[in-house]
Fold this protein.
Amino acid sequence: MKKITLTTAILLALLTATGCSSDDKKTAESSSTAQSSSVTTESSSSAAAADITIADGSTKDSAPAEGTVYMRQLLTAPHGTKSFAVVNVTMNGDKILAVQLDEFQYVSPDDFTGVPNSDGAFGENYPTDTVLSSKRGNDKAYSAMMADKGGASQGWADSMDAIAAFAVGKTAKELEDTVKELDDLGEDGNPADVVTGATFSDTSGYLQSIIDTANTGMISEGIKTSTEDLKETQVLGAPHGDKSFSVTTVALDGDKLAAASLDEFQYVDPADFGGVPNSNADFGADVQEGLVLSSKEANNDAYSAMMADKGGATNPYADNMSAVIKFALGKTTSELEDTVKELDGLGEDDSPADVVTGATFSDTAGYLQAIIDAMKAAK
C-alpha cells in the first residue's frame, strides 16, 4: 500500500491551533491554492472542475416509522474545498443513535496510507504525486502532524468522536440549535464550551453535515428493534475489482446485523456522472482529465445504465445493493460466511440470485464479505 504525507510548505500555510486543518495536497508550486468554498483556482484544470455537477446522494424518500432502525448516508464538505466527507447516521424515528464520519483528501505519498486500490487501477487517476487518504484511517499520523505544525492539543479522531457523541440521543432539530449557538461564538470563543471535547474550528460545519444527513441522506432500512445499544463501525474495502473503493458501515444488535450501508467510489465520465462534493472546487481540480470521482449509489441511474451497456446488467446497482443488505440483516458473521462459501461454489451458469434473492452482482460474495469484515471490526 502506498503512503502519503503533506509537505512542509502546505502545513505551515494551513495548519492552525484549532487542530483541524492541513488541507493542501502539494507544495507551494502546486497550481491549486487555498480558496473559499465558493471559489475555484485559476488554473485550467480548476476551470474544468468548476463545470462539474455534484451528486451527494440526498433523497426526499421518507424514513421508516419509529421502531425500525435505519441508516442515512450523505456526501458532504464540512471543512474547506480540498476534501469531501462520507457521513452516516443511524437512527430510530427522529432520534440519532450513532454517527460515523470520515473525510478523504489528496496528499503527497510518504507517511500516510491511501484508500484501498490506491496501488491499483483506481490510483492511476489521482492528481500527480498524490494519493487519496482517509483522515480517520490515518489518525495517528494526521494528529501528530497537526500537533507538530499547528499546535493542536487533541487528535483528529478525538475531536470527531466528541462531535459524534454529542449528536447521539438528539434530533436534527436539537442539533440545529447547537449550530446557532456555535455560530454566535466570537473569534475568541471555544467550540468545546458548547460541544464538550470538540476543538475543531469547523465544529459547526461537522454538526451541519450530521444534520443534513439525518434530514436528507440516502436511506438503508434495518431491522425492527427497540434497542439503542448498537455496536457500530465503518470500514474501507475493495469488494469489486481494483477500479474503486468502498465505504461500509454496519450496526450490530448483539451479534446480528441490525443495519448496513455500502457505497463505492470510482472515477467516471463527468458528462454522465455527478462528482463527490468539492469535485467542482480544489478537490477535483487536478484529477486525470475527463474523469470525476463519483459515488455509485448517488449516481445509481447513470451507473446502472453503464452496467447494462457494458455488462448486460438487468438489475440497477442500488436494487442489487439493497438486496445484498436485506439478505444480510438479522444474520451473524458465521451465517454470512456460509453464504459466501455457497456463492463461491456456484458454477459459471449459476446465478448469485439463486442464493441471495434479487442480487445479480457477479461480485455478490465480495459485497457480503465487505459486510462480514465490517461486522467483525465492530465486535
Notes: The first helix runs from residue 8 to 14. Residues 14 and 22 are 5 Å apart (CA to CA). Residues 1-47 have pLDDT under 50 and may be disordered.
